[in-house]
TrEMBL record:
Function field: Catalyzes the stereoinversion of LL-2,6-diaminopimelate (L,L-DAP) to meso-diaminopimelate (meso-DAP), a precursor of L-lysine and an essential component of the bacterial peptidoglycan.
UniProt GO BP: lysine biosynthetic process via diaminopimelate
SUPFAM superfamilies, sorted: Diaminopimelate epimerase-like (SSF54506)
Gene, per the UniProt record: dapF
Record Pfam families: DAP_epimerase
Provenance organism: Thalassospira tepidiphila MCCC 1A03514
Name of the protein in its database record: Diaminopimelate epimerase
Enzyme Commission numbers on file: 5.1.1.7
Pathway the protein contributes to: Amino-acid biosynthesis; L-lysine biosynthesis via DAP pathway; DL-2,6-diaminopimelate from LL-2,6-diaminopimelate: step 1/1
UniProt keyword Ligase, yes or no: no
Length: 281
């Protein structure tokens, strides 16, 4: 069978096509259009994010992870994919602690006995300039409202998030409000939009509209943003379980502003990408 090998993986249903650019240089330096073609759920393999594992640049890292959304755009962070890539690298190296490099820094990952993976997603940023926002506002109360959503919390987890709290997250038409908020002028780099309801001081229900993708079953960086936002508002403690459409993630916001995310990894299938999808006819 010819073609470029890939592995189809997911984290709570947030799904990925994972290529190994260390072995297949043809998948290095993909352009946005090619990435979108591969991610297309009808004529490509189909995924929320397209991931390419590359050789590490930093001597401390075991591998570099490049992340592209379903729309082909390259982004800075993807928590669920980080667990999947870490799981691959742990298997290659035969150890449970690995370091995954991204465009925004080094992420420590640790494999647990139950098969889940904990990733230190780095230090969250809370200043308006770092979200980023277009106005110098208090990021704990962003003056943004649309329909039933108002008073967002801005959090950067390597990527931008706008977190809204409501009484019942399930009742919000996120397909209607998500795209408008994703592209709102308040977010110069657009934003991932989370809609959350507090179950108790240790548990949050969250749904997500992802930048460059749409509604996904789970978003690791979004869960980190929701956990931090809830703690900032005094709605929960600093360690919470975030219940996503696809299942739970455990999030802990440490005193040094690092955020730990723990969750599962799953592999669906392996395959071979036909060269025509790479634009090589
Ligand atoms: N699903 C990913 C988030 C991808 C974020 C991406 N949509 C962006 O544009 O930042 C996660 O598990 O963290």
């Amino acid at each position: 069978m010819n073609g470029i090998p890939f592995v189809k993986m997911h984290g709570l249903g947030n799904d990925f096509v994972v290529f190994d650019g260390r072995r297949d240089p043809a998948v290095l330096d993909l352009d946005d259009a090619t990435a979108a073609r591969i991610a297309d759920r009808k004529t490509g393999v189909g995924c929320d994010q397209l991931i390419v594992i590359e050789p590490a640049r930093d001597d401390l890292a075991d591998a570099f992870m490049r992340i592209r959304n379903n729309d082909g755009g390259e982004v800075q962070a993807c928590g669920n994919a980080t667990r999947c890539v870490a799981n691959i690298v742990m298997g290659e190296l035969g150890r449970k602690d690995v370091i995954i490099e991204t465009v925004v820094g080094l992420l420590d990952a640790n494999g647990l006995a139950d098969g889940r993976v904990t990733v230190d997603m780095g230090q969250v940023k809370l200043d308006w300039r770092d979200i980023p926002l277009s106005d110098a506002v208090d990021t704990n109360h962003i003056p943004l409202s649309l329909g039933p959503l108002s008073d967002a919390v801005g959090v950067n987890v390597g990527n931008p998030h706008g977190v809204f709290f409501v009484d019942d997250a399930e009742s919000i038409d996120i397909e209607k409000f998500g795209p408008v908020l994703e592209h709102h002028e308040m977010f110069p780099e657009r934003a991932n939009i989370e809609v959350c309801s507090i179950i108790d001081e240790n548990k949050i229900r969250m749904r997500v509209w992802e930048r460059g993708v749409g509604v996904t079953r789970a978003c690791g960086t979004g869960a980190c943003a929701a956990g931090v936002a809830a703690a900032r508002r005094g709605l929960t403690g600093r360690k919470v379980e975030v219940i996503l459409d696809g299942g739970p993630l455990t999030i802990e916001w440490l005193p040094d502003d690092h955020v730990l995310m723990t969750g599962p990894v799953a592999t669906s299938f392996s395959g071979f990408l036909h060269a025509s999808l790479l634009g090589n006819h």
